[in-house]
């Protein structure tokens, strides 16, 4: 059974592997340029006062070719689960049902449950190993940027580093197999897999991840000297956000509230207008006793969150696998 | 000894459309069973129920004394050649044999190799490049080399040209002669089955119309020709199966265990094709049956 599974899988396996290998090679070739940039920004010699060197490094990364590779790495990592689900997961059973070969293979002396278990295990493990290796490569490449940028908690990086990509790979593969089993046609199953994986990737940071651990909730007085953002318009409308001094934290929500706890919305054209400039307006705001309400996940929750999200994805993937087994034995008849 | 196939009120519906209704069958072992009926009569459904590719909506089916596809042992006992003889297009002939060897504990590698050589198939050729006849032969090889106790073939020759059809049936007969396995094969053409089958099941409109030994069926059915009569007036022992009338003459097919020696009739024998056609025509005139494809 293992031989047959591998024989049928090896073409797709090689194709995806070739793409990943090319990607890894690209990372390998471009990494020295990143090292040079890091050294020439003064980050190796700045000791305790690296603020300006870090800013200069990130600016130069963002403005050059290295920045493009960095974003390519992020895009590639987001595309990876879908790639695995679409090309490894979806055809696994759908192609058999489509070409009728299930009627051949299900009449050998192997139960179809065992047939599917071997396929699920081989494909699932291959997906997770592939995702793990490419995550290691991308993380290694981007380590200088990630360390300086301190943004690995944020949605654009969280699902691309650490353990979570392995969970997404398992889930995407399982989604692909399930779609193929239910739809029974390869191409529509691929399309549905792509859609479902994308929806999960989008929904996760908005609907699920913030609440995997109850976020830290803080309400404190706003310091008008330290604002994240302040704005006013010709009509005298004012809006502002307090600064959040938590390096590396993921801020889920940051609102400005009145002392009564209502969202702050005020209009004062007398004081807040262009002629006066911002200063009188800020002084007026200082008298309002405004609060800043934040929900956030602090930086030290990175690994707990990674573990929980990976476990969650893995449990759903295994659940889908179990559903496939039940379906193939009971319903596909 | 348990029957090869035993069903009780076996029913399969696709949605609300019945494919097989209240089928009661007991097919003994050691026979070569022909399953005949027009397209859409439920032949394929019955055979797929027998190998466990389908599960019954209601009723029961037992194959060699056990539920179809209930485990590896049961799967090993039943060989199945599916309709259109599917094979893996990208796997070579040799890889198909390897598949058979890997997935079947009772695999007879020598038999498989001998058959492939005898057929003149190139082991290195992908199955997708084989002709329809060669593909069917490859599928048959896979099914027989696992040494099944029951070999089921679902319209194996339907899509083959006459030459390939004859070769395939020839091969099948060789297998039957060499083994003690029971064989069930379906076709909508009686001519395919006539030379090879000793047991017959006729299926129309999701129902079993006729079951029995071919010899016995031929001995108990008679064609009567004579002056026009109403079939309802026949004596009790003679059951009319089919009647056709001209203005003055009637031609009847009747079933009767006793010989018909009524002087009003010219009594003739039927061959298998006439017999099956009589049942199918009868079913067709009753209504619901799709028109029989009498000859291709």
Task: Describe what is shown at a glance.
The complex is a heterodimer of chains A (333) and B (296). Chain A has ten helices and six strands; from the N terminus they run H-H-H-H-H-H-H-H-E-E-E-E-E-H-E-H.
Structural features:
heterodimer; A: 333 residues; mainly alpha; three-stranded antiparallel β-sheet; 11% strand; B: 296 residues; six-stranded mixed β-sheet; four-stranded antiparallel β-sheet; 28% strand
Task: Please outline the helices and strands.
The complex is a heterodimer of chains A (333) and B (296).
Chain A: H1 2-40, H2 51-63, H3 65-99, H4 102-105, H5 112-149, H6 155-158, H7 164-183, H8 186-208, E1 216-221, E2 227-232, E3 237-242, E4 250-257, E5 266-267, H9 278-286, E6 291-297, H10 302-331
Antiparallel strand pairs in A: 1-6, 2-3, 3-5, 4-6
Chain B: E1 5-14, E2 17-27, E3 32-36, H1 43-51, E4 58-63, H2 72-77, E5 78-81, H3 93-103, H4 109-119, H5 132-145, E6 150-153, H6 162-178, E7 182-187, H7 190-194, E8 199-204, E9 207-213, H8 214-220, E10 221-227, E11 239-245, E12 249-255, E13 266-268, H9 272-286
Parallel strand pairs in B: 3-7, 3-8, 5-6, 6-7
Antiparallel strand pairs in B: 1-2, 1-4, 8-9, 10-12, 10-13, 11-12
Helix pairs in contact in B: 3-5, 4-5, 5-6
What does this protein structure show overall?
The complex is a heterodimer of chains A (333) and B (296). Chain A has 333 residues and is mainly alpha-helical. Helices cover 65% and strands 11% of the residues of chain A. In chain A, the strands form 2 sheets. In chain A, strands 1-6-4 form a 3-stranded antiparallel β-sheet, with no helix packed on it. Chain A has a 3-stranded antiparallel β-sheet with strand order 2-3-5, with no helix packed on it. In chain A, a hairpin with a 4-residue loop joins strand 2 and strand 3. The mean pLDDT of chain A is 92. Chain B contains 9 helices and 13 strands. The chains are: A mainly alpha (333), B alpha/beta (296). The interface between A and B is medium-sized, with 22 and 37 residues.
């Amino acid at each position: 059974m293992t031989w047959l599974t591998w024989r049928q899988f090896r073409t797709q396996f090689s194709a995806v592997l070739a793409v990943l290998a090319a990607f890894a090679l690209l990372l390998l070739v471009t990494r020295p340029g990143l090292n040079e940039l890091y050294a020439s920004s003064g980050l190796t010699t700045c000791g305790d006062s690296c603020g300006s060197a870090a800013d200069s490094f990130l600016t130069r990364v963002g403005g050059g070719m290295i920045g493009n590779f960095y974003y390519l790495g992020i895009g590639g990592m987001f595309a990876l689960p879908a790639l695995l689900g679409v090309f490894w997961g979806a055809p696994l059973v759908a192609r058999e049902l489509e070409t009728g070969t299930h009627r051949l293979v299900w009449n050998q002396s192997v139960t179809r449950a065992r047939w599917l278990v071997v396929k699920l295990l081989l494909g699932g493990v291959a997906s997770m190993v592939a995702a793990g290796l490419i995550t290691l490569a991308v993380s290694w490449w981007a380590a200088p940027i990630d360390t300086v940028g301190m943004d690995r908690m944020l949605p654009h990086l969280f699902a691309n580093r650490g353990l979570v990509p392995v969970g997404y790979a398992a889930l995407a593969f399982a989604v692909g197999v399930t779609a193929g089993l239910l739809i029974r046609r390869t191409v529509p199953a691929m399309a549905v897999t792509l859609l479902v994986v994308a929806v999960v990737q989008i929904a996760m940071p908005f609907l699920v991840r913030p609440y995997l651990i109850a976020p830290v909730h803080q309400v404190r007085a706003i310091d008008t000297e330290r604002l994240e953002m302040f704005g006013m318009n010709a009509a005298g409308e004012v809006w502002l956000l307090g600064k959040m001094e938590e390096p590396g934290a993921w801020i889920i929500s940051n609102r400005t509230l009145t002392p009564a706890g209502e969202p702050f919305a005020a209009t004062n054209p007398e004081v807040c207008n262009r002629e006066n400039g911002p200063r009188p307006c800020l002084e007026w705001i200082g008298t309002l006793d405004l609060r800043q309400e934040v929900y956030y996940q602090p930086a030290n929750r990175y690994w707990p969150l990674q573990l929980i999200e990976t476990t969650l994805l893995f449990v759903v993937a295994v659940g889908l696998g179990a559903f496939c087994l039940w379906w193939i034995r009971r319903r596909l008849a | 000894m348990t029957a090869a196939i035993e069903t009780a009120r076996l029913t399969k519906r696709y949605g609300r459309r019945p494919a097989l209704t209240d089928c009661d069958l007991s097919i003994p072992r050691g026979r070569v069973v022909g399953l005949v009926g027009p397209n859409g009569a439920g032949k394929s459904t019955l055979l797929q129920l027998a190998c466990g590719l389908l599960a019954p909506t209601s009723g029961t089916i037992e194959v060699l004394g056990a539920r179809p596809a209930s485990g590896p042992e049961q799967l090993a006992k039943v060989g199945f050649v599916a309709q259109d003889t599917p094979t893996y297009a990208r796997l070579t002939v040799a890889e198909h044999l390897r598949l058979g060897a890997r997935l079947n504990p009772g695999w007879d590698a020598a038999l498989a190799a001998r058959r492939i050589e005898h057929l003149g198939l190139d082991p290195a050729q992908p199955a997708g490049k084989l002709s329809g006849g060669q593909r069917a032969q490859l599928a048959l090889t896979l099914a027989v080399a696992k040494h099944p106790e029951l070999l089921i073939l679902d319209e194996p020759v339907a899509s083959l040209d006459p030459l390939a059809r004859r070769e395939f049936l020839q091969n099948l007969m060789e297998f039957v002669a060499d083994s003690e396995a029971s064989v069930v094969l379906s076709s909508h053409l009686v001519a395919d089955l006539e030379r090879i089958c000793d047991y017959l099941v006729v299926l129309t409109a999701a129902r079993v119309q006729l079951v029995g030994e071919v010899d016995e069926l031929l001995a108990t059915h008679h064609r009567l020709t004579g002056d026009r009569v109403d079939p309802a007036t026949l004596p009790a022992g003679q059951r009319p199966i089919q009647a056709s009338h001209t203005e003055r003459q009637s031609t009847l097919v009747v079933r009767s265990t006793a010989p018909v020696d009524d002087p009003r009739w010219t009594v003739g024998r039927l061959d298998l094709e006439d017999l099956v056609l009589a049942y199918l025509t009868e079913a067709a005139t009753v209504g619901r049956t799709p028109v029989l494809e009498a000859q291709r």
